[in-house]
Amino acid sequence: VTWNTNELFIVSQLNSVLSFLAVFVQMFLAALSFVYFAKALSGSYMKSTITQLERRFDIPSYLIGIIDGSFEIGNLLVIAFVSYFGAKLHRPKIIAVGCLLMSFGTFLIAMPHFLIGSYKIETSVRPSVNSSNTLPPCSSGSTVAGCERDSSVSMWIYVFLGNVLRGIGETPVQPLGISYIDDYAQSENAALYIGCVQTISVIGPVFGYLLGSLCAKIYVDIGQVDMETVTITPGDARWVGAWWLGYIIAGAITLMSAIPFWFLPKSLPMPLDKHDTSCTPEQARFIKDSPKMEHKFRQEEPANLHQMAKDFVPALKSLLGNPVYILYLCVTIIQFNSLIGMVTYKPKYIEQHYGQSASKANFLMGMINIPAVALGMFTGGVAMKKYKLGIMGAAKFAFGTSLLGYFLSLFFLAMGCENSKVAGITVSYTGVESLSYQERSLFSDCNLGCLCSRREWDPVCGENGISYVSPCLAGCTSSTGSVFGNCRCLALADAQPGNLTATPGQCPRRDSCDKIFPYFLALSVLSSFIISLGGTPGFVLLVRRITHSHTLTGIPAPIYFGAIIDSTCLKWGYKTCGGRGACRIYNTSAYRIVYLGLTLGLRTVSFFLCILGFAILKRHIKQEEKSALTNGSAELEALKKEESNSIHCEQFILALDRNPDRETHL
What we know:
single chain, 3-stranded antiparallel β-sheet, 57% helix, 18 helices, transmembrane, membrane, two-stranded antiparallel ribbon, mainly alpha, transport, Growth Hormone, Chain: A
């Protein structure tokens, strides 16, 4: 084949454009991966501080659910506008602005720590006046403390508003970032690139939970109080870690992630596999923003905001009138409800059900569970590229892995632990198992002579292996250092009472629970890996068919999950001036049933909808293929006319910019 000078020049220019395109796509991919890492780190750190925030602000789980769901409220406020208008504007710079908002919101969440006073540990042991000794736990004198209004009552509002701002800032990252890659990456590499981004976004939670584990070990008022005066340990239900420290670190990382996007171009040359075959290479659109490219065949038209607004409502009506979209919207809403509710309260479930500290629960989530998810999502992306799965193939693969993971998750229901033995709550003072939600059951003949408060939570562990709500309710009349003596209530549960002594803190869990916990972790890793195998194919399906329905799902899930978990609480803490605070101990069996049952129940409903969805999607794809075949025949006839070739190409290029399939809708 003989090449003339003009053709050689065109080939040379085309090769340089392709190299230029690959470099910028990879730069954008790296920047987007860093943003995904930063936002995932912040989001997972929020999940890891659930119990810390409950205890610090003395609020129940349903209110924590509202705070956690406020992120999706921020999403929902702007998602429709960002997705529709953002795709027509400078996408990298819009993402940069979003990163700045996320950073500011994260700093706002940490602000209450610097505005409120020191954390006051709830305890029934008070120092005596003008003495270094303490009053006897069981005292016949009045020990009613004065009411001091706590300034932290409404400070959780700052956390709520900061999380809303995080949600607003995060909104443009996913639709604009993924659509940018989908537009300018080679079609064969798009799925792999998306898999890489999703994998990085799952690595973020590893560091988020590890950061949560580290901060949970550090006392909340570190540097402000003498640590020798802190008598509780990280395993105590009253312990609050340095939750604010992690938000400052996460905010700084998010702020840095905004920098690269200010220097990335608005658009890139379209890859050859996304050009019309009737166009010659030199007619392809070149990048506008780069000063290195001298050949600009066409200037991009400025964004017409009035026309965008005019087209927005008809486009939205068309989208909501699509039965395929509506059905998959329902499926993904239910699936994400199950996923978000489960992930939000999983560290707390590990704490309450298996008796682990918040620090250890977060560490296990970060080092064991999350890596399995990352490996599964990356493996799913590689499998999709290797086997070249289409829309139906991706849907079937995601459904199959989710169904297998569902069956494995059923075994969690059998991995239960018994309730901790707490006198007056889970067992009677004589040691007989008897659940009670009534506070009057805390009193017995052995402590009636003491003026004990039924509202305080200052547990002690008796020599008989039973925990008592406070030294006073255990009937202890003396204390030496950290040991309480002459605890009369211990004798009721022991036929041959020995030393009637008790030590601070709850009694440890039984050995049988410690033996079950490793099996729980192993099954959790396996099920997470299998379910996440379908993560990337499912995500590609969402991007290409039904984008961003998950913003509707994250709002209610943590709220009603939290409310149902609250219904299993056996002993509530109380604020200084009255009012219910955070839960201190749960009914372990009921917690397991409602938490796992709700998670699995939602997924069961989604599977039935998926079966119907497959039938509709299959019919929809057949109609599209038939329509594409008809349109292809018409174009072939038009190409036979040499005069219309260039006109057709120009129309194609213009159509690329207006093609609604390239825009990210709701």
